Amino acid sequence: MADVVTHLNELNTSMQGTGMNTVTAREKLSACIRKLPVWIKFEKRNVTNFPFLEEIVVSENEGMTIATEVTKHLQQLSDSFQRYFSTGDLDVAKKWILDPFLFNLDSINDSDLMKDDLIELPANGQIQMEFETMKLENFWCAQLAPFPQLAKTALEILV
C-alpha cells in the first residue's frame, strides 16, 4: 500500500501550487484514474509500478496472496475515484482555451460570436509570443482588453 500512497501523494502534490487551474487538475486526475485499471492488472506478476511490493514479494504463493489483496484495494480506490470525481473531458468546443493557436475552428458553430475572435487572435504574432511565455491564466487575463468575451469565458473555465 506504500506504493499506492506514494502515487496518490505525487498526484496530490502535482495539483497544488500557483499556476494550477481546473483544466490542468482535471487532466492530472483523469490520468491517474486511467492508470488504475493498468495497476489492477499487476496480478500477472507485473509489479513495475510498485517498487516496495517488488522488494517484499519473495515466493510465488506470497506474491499471489498480496496481489489479491492489493488488487481488491485498487479496485475500491478506482470505484471511489469514479464516484467522487467528475473528470469528463473538456467540451471540444472549449479546447481553444488550452491552445487557441492550434485549435480546430471547425468544432465551433459558425453562429458563435467568439469564432471571429478565435480567427483573429492567432493572426497576431505578439499575442502568440505572449501565449508561449505566459502561464495560461495570465495569458487570458492579458487578453481581457483585446478579446473580452474570449478571455472572460476562458477564465471562468480555468478558475
UniProtKB/TrEMBL annotation:
It comes from the Eukaryota. This is Zinc finger BED-type containing 8. It comes from Chelydra serpentina.
